[in-house]
Amino acid sequence: MIRYITQRALLGFATLIGVVLLVFVAVRLTGDPAMLYLPLDASQEARDHFSAQHGFDDPIPVQLLAYVAGILHGDFGVSLRRSEPALQVVLQHYPNTLLLAFLGLAGALVLAVVLGAASGAKPMSRLDRGTGVVSLACASIPDFWLALVLIFGLAVRGGLFPTSGTGGPEYWVLPVVTIMARPFGLLTQVVRGAMVDAMAAPYIATGRSKGLPERRVVFVHALRNAWLPIVTVAGDLAVSLVNGAIVVESVFGIPGVGRLLIDAVYQRDFAIVQAVIIVTGTTIILLNLAIDLLYARINPRIRVEARFA
After folding, report:
1. Per-residue pLDDT tens for 162-209?
2. What are the structural domains of the chain?
3. Cβ-defined contacts of 93-97 (< 8 Å, 24+)
4. From 77, 115, 275, 295, which residue has the greatest number of CB atoms within 10 Å?
5. Segment 239-272, tens digit of pLDDT
6. DSSP letters along 7-73, please?
7. Beta carbons within 8 Å of 73's beta carbon, 6+ residues apart
8. Distance, CA of 181 to CA of 240 (rounded, Å)
9. What CA–CA distances, in Å, run from 170 to 57, 155, 159, 166?
10. What is the DSSP letter of 98?
């Protein structure tokens, strides 16, 4: 098992290194930051001094080696726009992104398990057909379109929630509903399919013959054996939610890393862009490792295969 997790961790680390190298080179192809941070009539001497001051006059391989050396000492560079350590700026914004992704996944998972299990226990019922229509619609709606509809209908016209920003719980209702819609739709379909298969198993008939309450048969015995596909899809959605929060944060004006990344790209703030990629990539690697551990915990065959790999 340790060998299996080690292999997965090394694979994730190698992927992160590749992404960092690609981003490091790509951001430097967007143009000279001196064009943004100096006046339009700045002399060539002033531009050269700016580039030398921030190390942009060195060849890209030299800049890369200096950046990697800094990372090993905990130095992710300094933001050109803010004149603050890049890692510090990213970590100040990251809790909002994680909170939005967590609330979205938690809400989607709870609703999907309850409705998916109930509809899967009674296929082709009114509940099943209604849940199918709603889940399919939620899985198909683009995040940005749903966000605009919610803002116009519930915030602007209804006056029920704020249109943007952060504060009390009322500020998080619309962003969480927006980001949880697609995961809810997908998870509901997965839970429903897994429950239909589980309800056809012989142990369900055995449980009913013993006089067990239907609620216990559905939500304990059947749901317990339907968790494998649910965990797999939920894990993939958790990773996508961390990345997908960029759009939702931008629409609702949430000061998370998504909005920070977009601003940094426009401002050619290389240190911020690189720090966001590294922090986000590390989070995704840790999420994947946690999912692998949970999956191995649920599925004993994974533990056996990893032991003899």
Report:
1. 888 777 888 889 999 999 999 999 999 888 888 888 777 777 777 777
2. 95-256 (1.10.3720.10)
3. 93/255, 93/256, 93/257, 93/259, 93/260, 94/256, 94/257, 94/279, 96/166, 96/249, 96/254, 96/255, 96/256, 97/242, 97/245, 97/249, 97/256, 97/257, 97/258
4. 275
5. 778 777 777 888 888 888 888 888 888 888 888 9
6. HHHHHHHHHHHHHHHHHHHHHTTS--THHHHS-TT--HHHHHHHHHHHTTTS-HHHHHHHHHHHHHT
7. none
8. 13
9. 48, 11, 11, 9
10. H
**268 secondary structure, DSSP code:** T
| Full-model pTM | 0.78
> Quick count: other Cβ atoms within 10 Å of Cβ 251?
22
From CA 75, how far away is CA 69, in angstroms rounded? 8
Measured distance CA(83)–CA(89) in Å, rounded? 10
Q: Is the dihedral of CA 140, 146, 149, 150 positive or negative?
A: positive
Express as a percent the part of the chain with pLDDT over 90: 9
For residues 252 and 162, give the distance between their C-alpha atoms in angstroms, rounded to a whole number: 9
Burial of 187 from C-beta contacts in 10 A (0-12 / 13-18 / 19+): buried
Place of tokens 């993939």: 236
State residue 78 phi and psi, 5-degree precision: -120, 135
Number of H helices, E strands in the chain: 15, 0
Across-strand partners of 160?
Answer: none
Cβ neighbours of residue 90 closer than 8 Å, sequence gap 6 or more: 76, 257, 260, 272, 275, 276, 279
